[in-house]
Structure formats: C-alpha cells, structure tokens
Amino acid sequence: MEKIDHECLAKLYEAFESHKQVFLIMEYVNGGSLHGYLKGKPNRQMAEIEAKFLWQQVVFGIHYLHQRNVTHRDIKLENILLDETRTRVKLIDFGFSTCIPHEKKVKIFCGTPSYMAPEIVSKIEYSGPPADIWALGVLLYALLCGRFPFKGANDKELYQNICKQDLPLPDHISRQARALLQKIFHKNPDKRPPIKEILRDPWLQFSPRDNEMMSPKSLSLINHLKHISGINFGGQVHGSQSQNKQMSKTMGSFNRTTSGFQNQSAEPSVDF
Ligand SMILES: Nc1ncnc2c1ncn2[C@@H]1O[C@H](COP(=O)(O)OP(=O)(O)OP(=O)(O)O)[C@@H](O)[C@H]1O
Ligand SMILES: [Mg+2]
Predict the structure, then answer these.
(1) Residue 245 falls within a domain, yes or no?
(2) pLDDT beyond 70 at 16
(3) Residue 212 near ligand 1, beta carbon < 6 Å
(4) Any catalytic annotation for residue 201?
(5) What secondary structure letter does DSSP report for 126?
(6) CA 94 to ligand 1 centroid distance, Å
(7) Which residues, including other chains, have CB under 8 Å from residue 232's CB and lie 6 or more apart?
(8) Domain harbouring 50, CATH code
(9) Three-state SS at 22
C-alpha cells in the first residue's frame, strides 16, 4: 500500500509493527467523513452538481486502484474523508483491499452489508472490480437520495432485496443520473460498466452550466484528475480561459450562492 499514490486516496507514509500491533502512519485528512457531512444536509442528500463533483473524485481514486489490480472492497460513506473545505475527497480504510489479477475470482464474504453486490451476498465466486462498482453505485445513490437503495428488516432480507429487488429511483433524480445508476446496478457483474467507462459517462461530464457554478480551483482539480488518469476524454472541463490556467493542487470551494447546494428535494431520509 505504500506504493499507492493518488490525490483521492489517503497516503500511507509508513507501516511498522510491534509484537502486538501494526502502526500505520498516514496523511491526516481533517474535514470529517462524507457520512458526517451528508448527515448535516437537509434530507441527508446533496444536489447533483455537488454529488457529481465529490463522487467523481472517489471514482478517480478507484480507477487508479483498479488499474493496479487493487480492489478496495469497503467503499462507503464512512471511509471517504473530506478536507477542511469539504471539497477534496480522500478514500481511506484499505483493510479489506486485495491485490489480485481481476480475472481471478474470489469467494470472500466481506464489505459492509448495505454496499454488498449480489454476487457477494449470494456467496458465489466473484471478481473484485464489479463489486467495487456496485458499492460506488450505493454511494452515489446515498448522496442523491439520502438513503440506501436496498433495505431489509435484517441482513437476510437485505441480501434478498439486493439480489431480487428492482432499483427504486426517486423522481427528483435527473435522466442522466438515473441512466448511470441503472447501468451500475446490473445484477450480473459482467454487465456492469468498468471504472473507465463510468468516468466517461455523460452524467459525469460537467456541462457549461455546471462549470459556471464551480470555482476555478474545483474545475482545475477535475481537469488535473482527468489528465493524470491517462484516459482520453476528448477535451477538458470547460471553464473560462483564466479558470483553466489555474492548475492548483489545493482546492477552494464551490460558489455557494449559485451552486444549488441546498437540496430542493423533499425526499424523506431514513438511513444513516
Ligand atoms: N487518514 C486519516 N485521516 C483522518 N482520520 C482518519 C484517517 N484514517 C482513518 N481515520 C479515522 O479513523 C476511523 C477508522 O479508520 P478506518 O476506516 O481506516 O478503520 P476501520 O477498520 O473502519 O475502523 P472502525 O472499525 O473504527 O470503523 C475513520 O472512520 C476516520 O474517522
Ligand atoms: Mg472504516
């Protein structure tokens, strides 16, 4: 893990062990978790523009891991930390992560129940990346809807619903976001889009209107992450010329007066 070096993943500087404990010296991320941040929002959900911006950073981090045959296996709100401006995202907790070729299947029951993919809860052999993709879908759903997509009175019922229930999609979710969620929540892991395809999904491309609502630093960060991903996006996030000149590693915040951060949806919250 010490070799892992990406801006959306908390850096592990050093690891050493005593006869009783393992010590990890990590980059300190001081803005609390996405879980705590979301809980403070009206209806525990966020506007699509903000969800797009934060979730995309997690997707870039996972893309970096998947390229290196690493699967995280515990993507969830609690394992995503924010910087003090609540705009930069760092994924933590590599306790369940594995580094095995993607074509090799495993049969390990791990993760967090609400985020588990059908193939995990069915206890069949599965390949790691599609299960991470499913968990990313649960994460996005939680950001947009203020609740988890599948629920149950107990784990058994939850697992049945994960395997059988159709995806409940509230009306306030945009057409593009719905299309992406439907692709991600394919019960068949082989049919789920790989991480690279998700990064290219239309919903994740910032429209000119989105760009107007984002600060120059936020636009610069997205352009920078696109650049280092090695994926050809066929263009940049379009900001003004002066905005695009800035390629800062530190980020400011959205323009809160125009970003629509206050979520308008009246969807009730039930979980987390
Ligand atoms: N790099 C970091 N910067 C700031 N806080 C961190 C960092 N890494 C971990 N934490 C804090 O420690 C908590 C537990 O860390 P982590 O998620 O890695 O372990 P865990 O196995 O999930 O532990 P737990 O069972 O307590 O959730 C996190 O929820 C977070 O609050
Ligand atoms: Mg954790």
Answers:
(1) no
(2) yes
(3) no
(4) no
(5) B
(6) 10
(7) none
(8) 1.10.510.10
(9) strand
In a domain, 76, yes or no: yes
Residue 221's contacts (CB-CB under 8 Å, 6 or more residues apart) are 57, 87, 88, 248, 251
User: Ligand 2: distance of its center to the CA of 78 in Å?
Assistant: 6
| Domain encompassing residue 129 | 12-232
User: Which is more confident, 118 or 1?
Assistant: 118
Q: CA dihedral defined by 45, 193, 90, 138, rounded to 10 degrees?
A: 30
Q: Is the dihedral of CA 60, 63, 65, 70 positive or negative?
A: positive
* Token pair 């939680």 in the structure block, residue: 142
> Is it the case that residue 58 has pLDDT exceeding 90?
yes
28 pocket-lining for ligand 1 (C-beta < 6 Å) = yes
CB atoms within 10 A of CB 60: 25
Identify which of 92, 94, 96 to mutate to test ligand 1's pocket (most ligand atoms within 8 A of the CB).
92
Q: In this structure, is residue 239 part of a structural domain?
A: no
DSSP H helical segments within 5-113, as ranges? 34-39, 48-67
pTM of the model: 0.87
Residue 92 Cβ < 6 Å to ligand 1: yes
Residue 150: Cβ within 10 Å count: 25
Lowest mean pLDDT among 19-23, 40-44, 108-112, 202-206: 108-112
CA 99 to chain centroid, in Å, comes to 19
Number of domains in the chain: 1
